[in-house]
Amino acid sequence: MNGKGLYERVMIIFGGVMIFFYIGLGLFIIFFHYFDYIDKIIRIIFGSALGLLGLARAFRTYEKVKELFFSSNNSNQ
Question: What global pTM score does this model have?
Answer without folding.
Answer: 0.78
